[in-house]
Amino acid sequence: MKTWIKSAATTVAIAAALLGCGHKEQAATPSSSSGTQGGNIIRIGHVAPLSGGDAHLGKDNENGARLAADEINAAGGVRLGDKIYRVEILGEDDKSDPREGTLAAQKLVDAGVVAVVGHLNSGSSIPASKIYNDAGVVQISPSTTAAKYTEQGFKTAFRVVANDNQQGTAMANYAIDNFKAKSVAIIDDRTAYGQGLVDVVEHVLKDHGVSVVSREYTNNKASDFNAILTKIRARQPDVIVYGGMDDTAGPMAKQIHQLGIKAPLLAGDGTCSPEFIKLAGIGADVLTCSRAGEAVEKLPKGAQFMAKYKAKFGTEVQIYAPYAYDAVYVIVDAVRRAGSLDRAAIAAAVATTDYDGLTGHISFDSKGDIKNGAISMFHVEGGQLNYLSTTR
Amino acid sequence: MGSLDTFFQQVFNGLVLGSLYALIALGYTMVYGIVNLINFAHGDVLMVGALTSLSTIALAQALAPSLPGWVLMIVGMLAAIPVCVLLSLVIERVAYRPLRNAPRLAPLITAIGVSILLQTLAMIIWGRNHLTFPQLLSAEPIGIGPATATVTKLLVIALSAIIMVALLLLVQYTRLGRSMRATAENARVAALMGVNPNAVIATTFAIGAALAAVAGVMYASLYSVAHFYMGFIPGLKAFTAAVLGGIGNIPGAMLGGVLLGLIEALGAGYIDQLSNGVFGSNYQDVFAFIVLCAVLILRPSGLLGERVADRA
Q1: What residues in A contact B281, CB-CB < 8 Å?
Q2: A116 by DSSP, 3-state: which?
Q3: pLDDT of residue A35 exceeding 50
Q4: Which residues of A touch B150 (CB under 8 A)?
Q5: Which of A146, A228, B45, B90 is most buried by its number of CB atoms within 10 A?
């Protein structure tokens, strides 16, 4: 019965997606048929969840990308030879679902995009990166942190944030140095991101002789964690580590508080958002979290960016909008240096990026990871995300 | 914290979850009992209830900021119940009644269609983001013997218990209850005896919807989250609970709901010890469904179900 409903729901969802995006595709088709000469438009794809539990984060990234495109267009667009091009962002929704992610990727490839910013979730980015690689389309993710993303040998996969090897190590070190953790409980949401991140944390912690007293699992759609938290409470860990996103971490933090657990919650970048604080309510203060980049507040142009973002979209920056913003600039920079809209030339140009962006200096190593990536730590106090420290 | 305390805490966790499942399962089972229809839109009625109360509470808070939380909670429920009842009556009239004598598969597919329709409408009205349900009652932990509880959790258990007792009394001892039982047994004969089946069926849908509205408000305030697809998982779990208890049987739905909640909590809490570390809490849902399969193999009509082949 379950599969029944699922397949029925999927069919309708796909039908709806096709209907809903029909006109968008029509608009995109002329460019792929008439090559890149007609229209004078540079099409850049953007994929992130725009519905479901991570929709606010997906919208955040897309807003960042659109802000960059609008700025570039307002400043006169991109000149290639004697033609002026406008930058256009084609936004797709992957619903945080790996399968939807590959569908969105194929759609963008078919629509003739020269490059893609995305996806938000590692679980969606990894399978999609193969499609982009096969089509020679360069992909720059502003938020995919799973190490595997750049370890597949694809010459088209890049990221402007640090990876989870670095993030997990930073989290583990924080638990040891600042929380003086001797024992931890670990929970993950069984996604490529959550699982990959806490595996690194667990590995580093064990190397330092910290014992893992409880290893628990949930899923990225759950809202009740009382059973696993009760079990964890009985084992009395010094720290609870969670690999997952803010829409599950919020209710989890609240339930930690309600069960009278005193151990702090240590989690990764997916939870490090203002949205978490809203969802966790009374339990928000238990969280210490990391972001796979320098804190926006600490960046020279950070305050200015946040003000611009707020003025344009009327909401706060969640997590990675500044990185999506920079990803668009990196692509446009590569287009300028390549001097053409040829996908292979752009991919080659991205690999040799040497660009000073909003989020710091951006250049890539041979795998496509950002060089000298930063991990910043935050702590929630009194309903505010407070910056603690940065490691590189 | 002793292992016995942990056990009681898990039982308490299970009771909270189970009471909610039972409330929702009642809606499935009553409708099935009377028209043999699995109303897959039931979970989405719950979602509409939660979101309606969320909007109403926000409005009430804006108009009268000084109202205490429990008043707002009652206001939210009083708004959600009529909306859900009305919605359910419209669904019954428009989508199910014309198909009452159609082959059984037709209303089932219609129910799935209604479910998707409601989700999409809710997405258009309330947006696609998770909405924060306000903290109306104290979320501070309070100790009840060996277990840690909150006011909301205690309210969930108490309210569910009261509603279930009231429902049993209604079905057993009132004229309406008698007509419901008569219609369930044989709608045509009941009609000959002066019962109006359409009215009885509509009332059944209305009662189920009111329970879903209450469950929706409780569910949203328990987890502080409401969104357009929040009805899917509890709906599925409650359907499972109804089948576990014997679909069509009212005490069965209650038993099935509470049992499913307990199995989930104790399963997640103890499965790794029971299996010596082979299975972890990732098998929490699998565990619940294994129990369901086992019950259905041994008792195909569910724990308290009576009728078998002719109704399935």
Answers
A1: 216-218, 227-228, 231
A2: strand
A3: no
A4: 258
A5: B45
Q: Say how many CB pairs under 8 Å bridge A and B.
A: 118
Per-residue pLDDT band at B285 (split at 50, 70, 90): confident
Query: How far is it, in rounded angstroms, from Cα A320 to Cα A273?
Result: 9
- Asked if A260 lies within 8 A of B17 by C-beta distance, the reply is no
Task: Kindly determine whether residue B10 and residue A231, on different chains, have CB atoms separated by under 8 Å.
Answer: yes
* Contact with chain A for residue B8, Cβ under 8 A: no
The string of pLDDT tens digits covering residues A75-104 is 988 988 888 999 999 999 998 899 999 999
What fold characterizes domain A11-161+301-362?
Rossmann fold (3.40.50)
Contact B103, B219 (CB under 8 A): no
The burial of B55, by beta-carbon neighbours within 10 Å (0-12 exposed, 13-18 middle, 19 or more buried), is given as middle
Distances (CA, A) of B269 to A84, B153, B253, B266: 63, 19, 24, 5
The beta-carbon neighbor of B223 closest among A227, A228, A251 is: A251
Torsion of the alpha carbons at B124, B126, B130 and B134, rounded to the nearest 10: -170
- The rounded distance, in Å, linking the Cα atoms of A26 and A29 is 5
- Within an 8 Å CB–CB cutoff, is residue A279 touching chain B? yes
Residues 6+ apart with CB under 8 A from A67: A308, A309, A312, A321, A325
pLDDT of A32 reads 38
The confidence score (pLDDT) of residue B307 equals 55
Q: Measured between CA atoms, how close is A259 to chain B, in angstroms?
A: 6
Q: What predicted TM-score, i.e. pTM, was given to this entire model? A: 0.83
Q: Can you give the three-state secondary structure of A313-363, one letter per residue?
A: HCCCCCCCHHHHHHHHHHHHHHHHHHCCCCHHHHHHHHHCCCEEECCEEEC
Res B255 pLDDT > 60: yes
Q: Smallest CA–CA separation between B178 and chain A, in Å?
A: 32
The answer to whether B261 and B277 are in contact (CB under 8 A) is no
Instruction: List the one residue out of A204, A199, A121 whose CA is nearest residue A159.
Output: A121
| Level-2 CATH architecture, domain A164-291 | 3-Layer(aba) Sandwich (3.40)
**Stretch(es) of chain A classified as CATH 3.40.50.2300:** 11-161+301-362, 164-291
The pLDDT value recorded for residue A272 is 92
User: What was the pLDDT predicted at B21?
Assistant: 94
